Amino acid sequence: MATIYIDNKAYEVKEGKNLLETCLTLGFNLPYFCWHPAMGSVGACRQCAVKVFKDETDTRGRITMSCMESVSNELRLSISDADAVQFRANIIEWLMTNHPHDCAVCDEGGSCHLQDMTVMTGHNYRRFEYKKRTYQNQYLGPFINHEMNRCIQCYRCVRFYKDYAGGKDLDVFAAHNHVYFGRSEDGILQNEFSGNLAEVCPTGVFTDKTLKEHYTRKWDFTSAPSVCQHCSLGCNIIAAERYGELRQITSRYNGEVNGYFICDRGRFGYEFVNSPLRIKEAKLRDENSKDLNKKNLLNKTSALITPGKTIGIGSPRTSMESNFALRKLIGAENFYQGISEQEASLHKLILEVMNSGIAYIPSLKEVEEADAILVLGEDLHNSAPMLALAVRQAIQKGPSELKTSLPAWHSLALKEFIQQEHAPLFIANPLKTQLDELAQASLNLSPAEIIQLGYAIAHHIDSASPIEHLLSESLLKEAKAIAKALSKAKKPLIITGTSSMQEGLVKAAANIAKSLKTANLCFVEHECNSLGLAMMDAPPLEEAMKHVFLNDTDTVIILENDLYRRTSSGNVDRFFEACKEIIVIDHLHNKTTQKASVLIPTGTFAESDGTLINNEGRAQSFFQALNAKNELIQESWRWLNELFSLQKGISIKDRTSPHELLEEIAIAMPQFKGIAQAVLQSDFRINGQRIPREPHRYSGRTAMNAHDNVSEPKPAQDLDTPMSFTMEGYRGEPPSSIIPFYWSPGWNSVQSVNKFQIEIGGALHGGDPGIRLINNKEGMSSYYDNNFVPIELKDQEWLAIPVQHIYGSDELSIHTPGVTERSPQPYIGLNKLDAENLNLQDGSKVTFETDGEEVTLPLRIITELPRKVAILPHGLQDFNCHLPIILRIKNLKKSR
Amino acid sequence: MFSIIRSIWLTSLHMFRKRATIEYPEHKAPLHPRYRGRIVLTRDPDGMERCVGCYLCAAACPVDCIALQATEDENHRRYPEFFRINFSRCIFCGYCEEACPTYAIQLIPDFEISEYDRQNLVYEKQDLLISGEGKYPGYNYYKVAGLDAGVKNKGEGDNEEPPIDIHSLLP
Question: What is the C-alpha separation between A622 and A607, in angstroms, rounded?
C-alpha cells in the first residue's frame, strides 16, 4: 500500500497501478479515451492529464498523463488544478474539431463515452471555424456498422482487435491526421470478437448492426442481467428489451468469467427470441388451438400425466429450475437426460474428474494466469470462443522466465519487451486452429493419436501413469517436449472437451493433470447447461427409449429439446411411435415439436428466470427481460410446477419462486448444495425498494401502448425476483448479481462499469456473481487406464468426426440472419491425398452411408487433416451428423 | 361612505373600457407564433420528414407521452417508423421542441384539440406531420450531419472537406 495525495488529501492506494486506475478506483471522474482496463495504457489520447508535484513545496508541478504514471508512495497530484483542467478541455476541443454533427442519428448516442467526456470537461462550443474532415465508410459484414467520420483516433479498436483478440483484418491505414481504421478492403470482419468493437470504441465508429434494425437508445431499454445461452462458458450478458422485442445483448462485467468482453455468437445470436419460428400457441391433439387458454391447457395436460406411466426428458439448454421441475413432476426415477448415451457418459466422466480434486478447475480469469497450456482436441475459437480469448491473453503475456519490472498496465512497453516470446502453448487437434500462430507446437492428429499423445505426456511426467500405444517416433519426441514444458510451469493448464466426443481425451487430460499434481484442468462442453444436467445424474436418452419400448409408458414430456439433434432420426421416429402422448415444451418450432401431441409454448432465456451451470461448475442466474403479453409464454419450470400443483391438488396461486426451487434442488440432490445462493430471494429489497430494470430516463411510458388503449395498463409485476419491470425503485448500486444495466451519474456509456468495481478490472462490489458448485474433494486414487483399441479402417472406410463452427453449430444462434449468412453449408472434409486417391476435387460430391441413409455432400479438401479421418460439421440446422463419431462406410461414386 | 362611492365609481368606469373577453368560437384569440399549442412534425426544405428518430424528445418529455421507433430507408436515412404523442397526457411544456436537434418537432399556436373520447387524443405520425417547415425554415439536418443518408455524399455537406484519400501521402 502507498499513500498518495490527491488535491492535498491523503489516500491509501495499491501500488503497481497507474494513477488513472487509482483515481477511478477512488471514485474521481477523470476523463480518458485510449486506456482500457483490459488493454492497459499507451498514453495516446492525452486526455487523462493531471498535475504531479515533486513534493509539498512544489507549486508549479508538471502536467503528465495519469495513465502512464505509476503510483509511488508520497506522490502528490492534482486533478482539479486549473492547468490540468484547461489541458483536458483543450484536448477534447481538438478532438471535436472534426467530430461530425451526428449524435442524433448515431447509434452510440446516449451510451457514448465521447459524449460523457465532452460534458465532463465542459466543452460545449465549437470555436474552430474550418471544415471538418470526412472519410468513406466500409462494409464490415452483418454485425458491425462503420462510420469513420466519428473517429477520434484513440487506437482502441486496433489494439483490441489485433493485439488483444488476434484479429488480422482490421488495421490503421494512412498517416498524420488522415489515419483510417478499417479493413484493407470492404468485407466481413473475420474475428470472432468483432462485436466488442462496438463497446471498445469510445464513440460511434463501430456500432452494433443488428441493433440498427430495431434501434433503441440505451435509456429506453428494459434490461435484465442474463447469462449467454450459446456455449458452455456462461458469459454474463445484459439482455435489453423494447416494445416486446429482445433488441440488444451487451457484455455484463464479471471479473471471474468473461470480464469486459463477449464473443460474436453471444452478442449477435439473440434473434431467435424474435424469430417467426417461435411457438406462440399451444397445440393439443384434436383440439382447436384457438380455444386453448392457460387453464384448460393445464387441466388437459395434467390429465395425460399418470404417475409412473410418464417419463420426462430434460435438456442441456434450459435452466436447472426447469430440469428440476420436470424431475419433481414425474419423479426422479422417470427423469432422463435428453442427450445421447455417448455424450452423457462423457459428461459423467468429466464430472468425475472435476470432483476428484486432481486438478483445479479454473475460471476464465484464472485461465489468463496460466503459464503453459495444452489444448487437446478442441478448436476453442469455435467451441468456446471466450476461452480462446483467455488462452491468448495467457500466452501473449510471455513465458514466465521473462522477468520484467514493467507493470502489467504498461501495454505498449510490455509488447515491445515481450516481442514474439510466447508462453508455451501446445495444440493437438485434427484441424488447424486460430491459436496455432501462438503455439510452440500445433499437431494435426487423428483423435486416437491425440489421446495417445496425451497418455505419452502423462507417462513422461510420471512413469506410474499408463504408457501410450502406437505413437510415432516424432510424436513421442513432441510428447517429451510438451511434458517438459508443462512440468516446468507453475500454473500449467490442460484444456479439452466434448467437441470430438472422445472419452480417451478426458482420461488422458486427467492423467496429465494428475501427473503434474498442481495442474489446472478445463473442460469445454456443448451447451449452456450441459454440466448442470450432467450433475443431475440421470440416465441418458437411449435409456428413456428403452424404457418406453419395454414398459407400458404412455406419456413422455420433452423439455426444450430437439431429440433429432441428439440421436439418429430412425431411433427418434421409432421412439415417438411407441409413445402414446408426446408433450413437448419448447420455444422454437423444430422437428420434435412437429411430433408433439401436446405442444406447450415457453419462454426463451429472455422471458425466463433461471440458473445455468457453466463448464467450471459455476451456477449463475439469468433474469427475465421481456414480458410476453401472451399468457402462454412463461418459463418451463412454471408450467411444470403448475402441473405438479394440479397433480398434487395444491393451489396454483401458491407460486414457487426460483429461489425456492433452487433450495428444493439442493435438498433433493446434495451435489447442488449452495446453488440457492446464486439468486437473491424475491423479497430482497434495498431501503424497501426493488431494483428497477428501466433507467430513470426511460421514455414513452404513457404513449407506447396508447394506440391500443389510452388508459395505461398496470405495469407488469415481478413476483419472482427483487427487480421491477418499471423505472421506479432503488436508484443506487444494485447487488452484483442483479445489475440490470451500467449507469452512473456522468457515465452513460458502458465505461460506467468502473463505478461498480472494488478496484478497476477487479471484482464487482460485493463479489462477482455466481456460485461454484464443484468442490473437488474425493481424490482420484489411480490413473485412468489406457484402453486403446486400434480402429481397423477398410479401404472405403473413414473415421468421421464432428467439427464445431462458431456460426452454425449452435442450435439457437443460427436464427440470427447474420449468423445464418456466416454458417457453413453442410460439407464433408477429407485429406488431400485421400481425395486424390478417390479421384475427387474440392467441391465434388461425395456420397456416403450413415445410419443406413445415403448422404451426398460437397467435398472440402483440408490439407492438414490426418489421413483416413473425415470431418462433418456439428449441429448444422439442416444437417445433423447424429452420432458424432461413427465409422462411416463411404459409398463413393467414382467421379466421371 | 366616501370609499364606497369611490369604489362604485371606479367599477362603473370599466363599462367604458375595451373588453378583454372575446366571443371565442366566433372570434379567435390572437396567439403569438411561439405559443405552445398542438405539436406538429415538420418537413425539411426538400419536403422530406425532418424527424430522424433520435428519441431526444421522448427522453425530454416529463410525462413520457412521446413514443417512437426509428428505422432507416434504403439510403440509411433515419426516420420514425411510428411516432405517437398521447395528447391526453401532454402538458405542452415545449421541452420536446427544445430537445429536437433537427427542428422537426414544433409546438404551434393551436390549442383546439379537444375530444369527447380520450382515445382520439392519441396522435400518430400521419396526424402530426405537416407539409411545411414550420417556424424554422431552411434547415436540413442531413446537410450538416456527417453521414451520408442519401441527401448529400460524404464531404459535400456544409463545412465539410472532401473525403480523405487514404492512399495519399501528401500532408
Answer: 10
CATH of the domain at B106: 3.30.70.3270
User: Looking at the partner chain, which of B84, B166, B171 has a beta carbon nearest the beta carbon of A703?
Assistant: B84
Query: Is A113 a member of any domain?
Result: no
Q: Which of A586, A583, A612, A609 is nearest to A597 (CA)?
A: A583
d(CA A202, CA A810): 31
Q: How large is the average pLDDT for residues A70-88?
A: 93
According to DSSP, the β-strands at B78-86 and B122-123 are antiparallel
Q: Is B65 annotated as a binding residue?
A: no
- The answer as to whether B124 is a domain residue is yes
Q: Domain count of chain A?
A: 5
Are B154 and A147 an interchain contact pair (Cβ–Cβ within 8 Å)? no
Amino acid at residue number A658: P
**Cα distance from B105 to chain A (closest Cα, Å)?**
14
Query: Letter for the amino acid at A576?
Result: F
Residue B16: pLDDT over 70: yes
Q: What is the mean pLDDT of residues A111-137?
A: 92
How far off is chain A from B129, nearest CA to CA, in Å?
17
Residue A552: count other Cβ atoms within 10 Å of its Cβ.
7
At residue A254, φ and ψ (nearest 5 deg) are -140, 110
- Give this complex's ipTM: 0.90
Question: Do A623 and A738 touch, CB atoms closer than 8 A?
Answer: yes
Contact in structure between A147 and A102 (CB atoms under 8 Å): yes
Contact at CB, B58 and A109, closer than 8 angstroms? no
Q: Which of A878, A889, A891, A887 shows the shortest CA–CA distance to A569?
A: A878
Domain that holds residue A801: 797-889
CATH number at residue A61: 3.10.20.740
Give the span between the Cα atoms of A866 and A801, in whole angstroms: 12
Joined together, the cell numbers standing for residue A777 give 474433494
Give the span between the Cα atoms of A338 and A561, in whole angstroms.
7
What's the rounded Cα separation, in Å, for the pair A35 and A94?
Answer: 18
Of the three residues A256, A274, A292, the one that is the final residue of a domain is A274
Could you count the other beta carbons within 10 Å of the beta carbon of residue A84? 22
Residue B13 lies in a domain: no
Share the mean pLDDT of chain A: 90
Residue that is written with C-alpha cell 486460430 in the block: A434
Q: Which of A518, A549, A573 is the last residue of a domain?
A: A518
> Does A780 have pLDDT greater than 90?
no
Q: For residue A177, what is the nearest residue in chain B, using CA coordinates?
A: B171
Least trusted range by pLDDT, from A642-651, A705-714, A788-797, B42-51:
A788-797
The answer to whether A309 faces chain B, any CB pair under 8 Å, is: no
Q: Could you report the per-residue pLDDT of B92-106, keeping only the tens digit for each?
A: 999 999 999 999 999
All three cell numbers of A377, joined, read 482436441
* Structural domain boundaries enclosing B84: 29-144
- A376 and A508 in a single domain? The answer is yes
Task: Say whether both A371 and A430 belong to one domain.
Answer: yes
d(C-alpha A134, C-alpha A487), whole Å: 56
Please report residues of B whose CB lies closer than 8 A to that of A147: 146-147
Tell me which range, A161-165, A173-177, A883-887, B166-170, is most confidently predicted by mean pLDDT.
A161-165
Q: What is the pLDDT of residues A498-550, one digit of tens each?
A: 988 888 999 999 999 999 988 999 999 999 999 999 999 999 999 999 988 88
- Residue B111 maps to a domain: yes
- Asked whether residue A369 is assigned to any structural domain, the reply reads yes
CA atoms within 13 A on the CB side of B145: 22
What is the rounded CA–CA span in Å between residue A328 and residue A333?
10
Place of cell 467439427: A803
Q: CB contact, 8 Å: A245 with chain B?
A: no
Scanning A521-582, the segments in alpha helix (DSSP H) are 530-535, 541-550, 569-578
